[in-house]
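Entry: UTRO protein
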Amino acid sequence: EKAVNLKKDLAEMQEWMTQAEEEYLEKDFEYKSPEELENAVEEMKRAKEDVLQKEVRVKILKDNIKMLAAKVPSSGQDLVTELNVVLENYQLLCNRIRGKCHTLEEVWSCWIELLQYLDLETAWLNNLEERVQMTENLPDKVDAVNDALESLESVLRHPADNRTQIRELGQTLIDGGILDDIISEKLEAFNARYEELSHLAVSRQIALEQQLQTMRETDHMLQVLQENLAELDRQLTSYLTDRVDAFQMPQEAQ
């Protein structure tokens, strides 16, 4: 009777493992939204816990069968053979569910990391857009133009590492068919805004550099002219002080 019960327990255990495999491993998942992906991660975590909780039952079953085989070798040997099959299948099931759970957790982590990088780069784009707007309607002064140019250039020196991460993380998920529509839409919008703002910022940078160069050249010319006028004023004052007749002055002084 004990052998019959143990044989029944082995059959139930095998049936449970077959159902678990069908439910957690053979079902096709389509992750088209973050909610679906997150739910799949949580489901696989529960599956892993569920399978591992059966470890105690498997151990008790194993001990009982070995005890029976030791007492009644004739009826216990067949059970040991069946037990070995069940143990092998159980270990395989545990490994596969652990593997799938780990994979889904990695995919979820990849998605979260992508969102974090997008947030960082979006904040940078907002800053860049603000700096570009600050270059409009500047006072016609060298200091003001120079400060605006330096401010814009400091933002443009932003490293490309984050954009590389965005591209690689996005492509990894898309290649795996994970959230591909959502990610493609996000990347398209981000890249379009990046290209537009970067082009605008560089164009504005070039314009400011040219404006600054023109203003500095003009300031230099005015400074030279002012120095010449000051020298001329000094000479004229000297002539007047000495009461020099106009016709005795150099032509340019007349």
